[in-house]
Design goal:
Layout lengths: L2 H4 L3 E4 L3 E6 L20 E5 L21 H15 L4 E6 L1 H12 L4 E7 L17 H13 L1 H13 L5 H12 L3 H12 L14 E8 L5 H10 L3 E9 L3 H4 L1 H13 L1
Parallel strand pairs: 2-3, 2-4, 4-5, 5-6, 6-7
Antiparallel strand pairs: 1-3
Helix pairs in contact: 2-3, 4-5, 4-7, 5-6
Amino acid sequence: MNVLKRNNVRVTGRGSRTLLFVNGFGCDQSIWHYVTPAFYEHFQLVLFDHVGAGLSDVAAYDPGKYTSLDSYAQDVLDICQELNLHDVTLIGHSVGAMIGMLAAIKEPVFFQQILMLCPSPCYLNEAGYRGGFDRQDMEDMLRFMEQDFVGWADSFAPFIMGNPDRPNLTAELAHSFCQNDPSIAKQFARVTFLSDNRQDVARLKTPCLLLQCAQDLIAPLEVGDFLKACLPNATLITLPVAGHCPHVSAPTETLTALEAFMAA
């Protein structure tokens, strides 16, 4: 198995310290282009695509394998092993943050810090927990995706981006969604939005940053409070911005928070 080809791994940058970027659902590594230039001179940057997204090897996708986020976490560990990485600072967005968390729980030796952008261990509203979606609404959304993937991308992208005054960002996200293999994206969506990793959270011992947005329809503020209460070694920062993709819509504020945490 060629791990680097499977996940279209790209290594760039000039520094000795490694940043590993883990994309959220529906995005490939290009989604980080608003923030990566700031890191180029002082870090080694490792970017990749989940199987089925971007320029990954679609032939490597096994629907029997990718039935949980654990398999995506193993892909992250495979990349770390293949590149002989150590003391990694992992930056994960949305479900990518949970994938990074699971990887660090399984093999903490690789990781120095976990930086989570808009993370959520569970997107569903349950007794005593507000994840943001009632189960019926989530099932309706996934059914819409099954029936009309492009229509879903066009209607859901504004909901995720959360900046209606900047339609170019919404268009960029919708375009990213449509670059995915639709059949793989549909399964990954079910794995993402119906996953529940709340019981795993307390197992993470790696120092981490929880970076949330003040107005986020995908991961409401209660999610950040839950994670902060459960994580033994976490810092919670709320950016005064809207949306679920601050590395796209608010890169300056995002970079300021990430750099301050890494420096500390």
